[in-house]
Write a structure and sequence with these properties.
422 residues, alpha/beta, Rossmann fold, four-stranded parallel beta sheet, 23% strand, globular, binds flavin-adenine dinucleotide, G3P_DH_GlpB_su, FAD/NAD-bd_sf, glycerol-3-phosphate dehydrogenase (quinone) activity, oxidoreductase
Length: 422
C-alpha cells in the first residue's frame, strides 16, 4: 500500500496541472492514470473562452465570465484562480522547453487550423499565433505529400472566405515527403518527430526555403519538432518569412509538447507516476475517502492495489476521458459512482445539430468552490476529494472553446483546496 499527501487520478491537463501545483508546495504527490489524456493528442493551443451563446468574443474573455452563469466552473472558482492558473501554466511550460504566451492586451489570439478555419485561443506558442500574418499580402498554405490530414488546396478555399484574409493572395503547395509513399498513413506527429532529428530539421529547412520564395508568410502543419520545437522554430523564423504552424486534428503535436513540459516539471518535483492503471473504486470511511483501488492493466493477472492518501484529486475527464459514463439507464461518475442528473430519454442527451450544444457535453459532477462533489441537498459528499477538468459539470468546451482553460484552472484550484485541507 502506498501513501501520498495528494493522490491525483488522471494525467490529462487537469491532473497534471493539479499534480504540479500540489508538488510545488512540498506535498508528496502520486498520479494514477490509465492513459495519457486528451492533451497528448490535442493542438496545445489553450482555449480559455472563445464564444458565449454562439457569439464570438472580440474583447477580453474575462469580461464575459458573468454571462456563463453561476454554475459554470469558471464562476465557481473565480477569476483570480483562473488568472493565477494561466500564469503558472505559462511559467511551467516556458521553463520546460515549450514557449507559450498570452496576448499582452488580454485578448484571444487567432489560430488557423489545418483545414483553413480560424479559431480563438488564449495561450499558444508563437508558431500557432496566426494573428502574426493578418497583414501579410502573399501567403503560402503548405502541406506535405502523403500527409493525408493536410489538404492545402482545400484549406486555401476555406481561408479565403474570411474577411481577415480578403486582401491577401493565398496559394497552396506540397512539400516533398522525406519518406516517399509510406506503408501507413503519415501523420503530423511522425513528421514532427523526424524534424526533432538533425536530418529531419535539414529536410524541413530546405523544403521551406524552396517553397517559400516570394511569400511574406507560410502556414505549415504542426511539424517543427516535439522536444526540439522551440530551438527549431526560432531558427526557421530566420528564413525571411513569417512561419505559422496550423493547429491540427489529432495527433495535434502541440498538446504533446505541452504534456511533455508539464511532465518534466512534475518529475523535477518528485511526482510519482503510476501509469497503465485503472482506478476501479474508492474506499470510504466516516465520510472521507481512505483509498482508491486500482488494477494494473500492464501486468497479466494483476491483483488490485490499494493507494491511500490524505487528499484525492479526481481528474478523470468527461465522457471522452472515461470519468463520466453514460448508459441508457443512467449517467454516473465512474470511481465514486456519483449519479449525474440527465434526461431518461437518450435522444434528449444530444442535439440534432452535430455541431450544436449537446447536453452530454455538460454532464459532470456538481461541485462547490473547493471543487468538492455535492449531494442532492448541496452538501459536500467527501471532505477530502476534489474534482477537476472535464469531470466537472456545467460547461460545453467545444462550443465555448474553453477546453484546456477549464482543465488547467480547475486542476490548479483543486490542488489549492487539497493543500488547504491538509
Ligand atoms: C480531439 C480533441 C481536441 C481538442 N483540442 C483542444 C484544443 O486545441 N484546445 C483546447 O483548449 N481544448 C481542446 N480540447 C478539449 C480539451 O482537450 C479537454 O477539455 C481537456 O483536455 C480535458 O482535460 P481533462 O484533464 O479534464 O481530461 P482528459 O484529458 O480526458 O484526461 C483524463 C485522464 O484520466 C484518466 N482516467 C480516466 N478514468 C480513469 C480511471 N478510472 N483510472 C485511471 N485513470 C483514469 C485518463 O486515462 C486520462 O489520463 C480538445 C478535445 C478533443 C477531444
Amino acid at each position: 500500500m502506498r501513501h501520498s499527501d495528494v493522490l491525483v487520478v488522471g494525467a490529462g491537463m487537469a491532473g497534471l496541472m493539479a499534480a504540479v501545483t500540489a508538488a510545488k508546495s512540498g506535498a508528496s504527490v502520486s498520479v494514477l492514470s490509465e492513459g495519457a489524456g486528451v492533451i497528448s493528442i490535442g493542438s496545445g493551443a489553450v482555449d480559455f473562452l472563445g464564444y458565449v451563446n454562439g457569439k464570438k468574443i472580440t474583447d477580453n474573455p474575462f469580461n464575459h465570465l458573468s454571462e456563463l452563469g453561476e454554475m459554470h466552473p469558471y464562476n465557481i472558482i473565480g477569476a483570480e484562480n483562473i488568472k493565477n492558473a494561466f500564469a503558472s501554466l505559462v511559467e511551467i511550460s516556458n521553463a520546460n522547453g515549450y514557449e507559450i504566451k498570452m496576448n499582452e492586451e488580454g485578448l484571444n489570439h487567432t489560430a488557423i487550423s489545418i483545414a483553413g478555419t480560424t479559431k480563438p485561443t488564449y495561450i499558444c506558442s508563437e508558431s500557432n499565433n496566426a494573428s502574426r500574418i493578418l497583414k501579410a499580402k502573399k501567403i503560402l498554405f503548405a502541406g506535405v505529400e502523403y500527409l493525408k490530414d493536410s489538404q492545402p488546396a482545400l484549406a486555401v478555399k476555406q481561408a479565403k472566405q474570411y474577411k481577415i484574409f480578403a486582401d491577401a493572395e493565398i496559394n497552396s503547395a506540397l512539400l516533398k515527403s522525406p519518406f516517399g509513399k509510406t506503408h501507413r498513413v503519415l501523420n503530423c506527429l511522425d513528421l514532427a518527430r523526424y524534424v526533432d532529428k538533425e536530418e529531419g530539421f535539414n529536410w524541413l529547412k530546405s523544403e521551406l526555403s524552396k517553397a517559400a520564395a516570394g511569400y511574406d508568410a507560410v502556414i505549415i502543419p504542426p511539424i517543427c519538432g516535439t522536444i526540439n520545437y522551440t530551438k527549431h522554430f526560432k531558427e526557421l523564423q530566420n528564413l525571411g518569412f513569417i512561419l505559422v504552424e496550423a493547429v491540427s486534428i489529432p495527433p495535434g503535436v502541440g498538446g504533446y509538447r505541452l504534456r511533455h513540459a508539464l511532465i518534466n516539471e512534475a518529475k523535477k518535483l518528485n511526482v510519482k507516476f503510476i501509469e497503465n492503471c485503472n482506478v476501479q473504486r474508492a474506499v470510504i470511511e466516516n465520510g472521507k475517502c481512505k483509498s482508491v483501488i486500482a488494477l494494473h492493466n500492464n501486468i497479466a493477472g494483476a491483483l488490485e492495489t490499494e493507494y491511500t492518501a490524505d487528499n484525492f484529486i479526481i481528474a478523470t475527464g468527461g465522457i471522452i476521458g472515461n470519468g463520466i459514463a453514460s448508459t441508457p439507464d443512467k449517467v454516473y461518475e465512474t470511481i465514486f459512482n456519483i449519479t449525474i442528473d440527465s434526461p431518461v430519454s437518450v435522444e434528449e442527451r444530444s442535439d440534432k445539430n452535430v455541431f450544436g450544444s449537446h447536453l452530454f457535453a455538460r454532464f459532470g459532477v456538481k461541485v462547490n468552490s473547493k471543487l468538492q462533489a455535492l449531494d442532492s441537498k448541496g452538501s459536500p459528499l467527501y471532505d477530502n476529494v476534489f474534482f477537476a477538468g472535464n469531470t466537472i459539470a456545467g460547461y460545453d468546451f467545444p462550443t465555448e472553446k474553453s477546453g484546456y482553460g477549464v482543465a488547467c484552472s480547475t486542476g490548479y484550484t483543486a490542488a489549492l483546496s487539497a493543500l488547504a485541507s491538509k
